[in-house]
Every structure is written in C-alpha cells, then in structure tokens.
Amino acid sequence: MWLPKGGIEPKIRSRALYQGVEQGSPMLKLFFCALLLLVTFGAWAKQELTLAAVPYLVSKISAEVLREAYAPLGIEVRLQILPPPKTLAMANSGVVDGELNRIQGVEQQYPNLLRVPVAVNYIEMMVVTNGMLFKVDGWQSLRTYRIGYKSGIKLAEQATRGMYITSYLSDKKLLHDLKSGKIDLILVGRMEALDHLARQPDSNIKMLEPPLVKMKLYHYLNQKHRALLPEITRQLQQMHDSGRIEAIRQTILRKNFGSLLPQGPG
Fold first, then answer.
1. Domain range spanning residue 220?
2. Which of 73, 79, 137, 251 could form a disulfide bond with 141, CB atoms 3.0-4.6 angstroms apart?
C-alpha cells in the first residue's frame, strides 16, 4: 500500500488516535476534550475582518470604536486604506469584508452591503476658506462660490449638484488651488479642517462655523457576514448607551488638536 510522506495515511492515523483516547484513562479523555476546546477557541479567536477605509482622520475614531466593539467577539479589525471611490466597490464585491464608515443610504447603490444600524461616528461638514468670511447658512449659501472637495465624498457630491464644483484626488492640490484663488472654498470634515489649521497656524486658512451639516456614519458589512449583524449591533448599542462611542471620539480629538477644538461636543 502506498503511504504518504510522513507515515500513516491520515484517516488511519485519526482513527488510531480516537481509539487510543477511548481506551485510555478518564484523565486522558479529559485532557483530549480540553485540547479540542482550546484548538476550537483558538481558531475562533483569531478571526479577522478587513474593512475598506478612506484616508481621512475621521477613520481613526471609527476604527477605534469598531476594534473595541469586535474585541469581545474574538474578531480583530484590520483596515485597508483606499481612495474614496474604491472603498464601496471593493466592500460591495466582497474583496474586503466591509466598509469602516459611511453615511446612511449607500446601500441603495451597493446592494451587497448591510448597514449596522448603530452609528459609529459622525462627520461635520465644514467650510474652509483662504481668509474669506461669510455667513454659512446651509448648502444654498455656497451657491455663488467656487467649491472644491475630495473626490468620493458622497455627501458633498449630492449636496452641491448644480453648483460650481471641482473634485480633487489629493489634499495637496486641493489646498494649493484654495490658496492660489482658483477656488473660493473647500468642503472637508471637521477633523480634516483642524488638521489643516494645525499644520499651517500662520496661514490665512479659516474654518467657518457652524458646520454645514452633521451626518451620522455607519459601519457596513458585506452580506457574506450577515450572521455577525445581530451581535455587532448589540455591542455597538451598548457602547452608545454607555457614552463610550462619544468618549472615544473626544479622547482622539483632544489628543490630536487640543486648543483648536471649539467649545462643546464635536
């Protein structure tokens, strides 16, 4: 009989091991059962989810929230940082396991994505100018200005239709055109605006208050992970109810921006 490299054919070896345990002492049986439990738990505990994420500072908060939420489930969260237009397509196709955070409604365009119904974060869309001041009063107050924003920001795309807009692939080009006067203002999240201010404290860059809009951000899973939806929803709901999600947000904001923060939450 042909034998595979390494000795006894696997089925025979497994049967021999099982018979040895059956014929052994109770202590041996107990040890074998404990070993099986450890192997099973070890395999479960090493599960990973790879989530698509955009290279924005707001992703730091959402990532920390989700790492804490998934930890009790024995799941480690890893991020795959991608340009904004690619993240949803990859999550929808199942190349990655889901999307870190997006606004509600993207599931209508990407039907393979399941929205976890508890918000993990929120974004405040801010107007940033090169020294120009005016009253921000909703999206229509921007209609007479030349507007720039990063490509792939669905909220900005939808709200500025019909206006004079330019989308950019890089922050460097976006800021360059703002400073050179090619555009009048840019639309970014509060964290990105604070980052611009922190990096260029002596510039004319102004972040105008109040925010244009405050939108909740939700975690999305590819439908192949549908079984996870009830449990991760439960974990996030507990974190929301206890104030833990907001505490994570405020800790990261204070650590990164300190005195640049406005008074009050957010």
1. 45-121+216-256
2. 137
Residue 109 sits at φ, ψ, to 5 deg, of -90, -25
- List the structure tokens of 190: 């509060």
Assess contact for 57 and 12: CB atoms under 8 A.
no
Instruction: Of 61-65, 155-159, 191-195, give the range with the top mean pLDDT.
Output: 61-65
* β-sheet bridge partners, residue 220: 99, 115
Does a structural domain hold residue 25?
no
pLDDT computed for residue 17 by the predictor: 45
Co-location of 86 and 117 in the same domain: yes
- Report yes or no: 178 and 128 within 8 Å, Cβ to Cβ: yes
- Residue 212: pLDDT over 90: yes
Query: Does 229 lie in the same domain as 102?
Result: yes
Do 136 and 113 lie in one domain? The reply is no
| SS3 of residue 103 by DSSP | strand
Same domain, 158 and 223: no
State how far the Cα of 98 lies from the Cα of 89, in Å rounded to an integer.
10
Q: Is the pLDDT of residue 220 over 90?
A: yes
CATH code at 237? 3.40.190.10
Measured at the CA of 227, the angle between CA 223 and CA 228, to 5 degrees, comes to: 90
Q: How far is CA 93 from the centre of its chain?
A: 17
Residues 106 and 224 in one domain: yes
Is 228 found in the same domain as 183?
A: no
Count of other CB atoms within 10 angstroms of residue 188: 29
pLDDT digit string, tens, across residues 166-184:
999 888 899 999 999 999 9
Residues 81 and 143 in one domain: no
Please say if the pLDDT value at position 210 is more than 50. yes
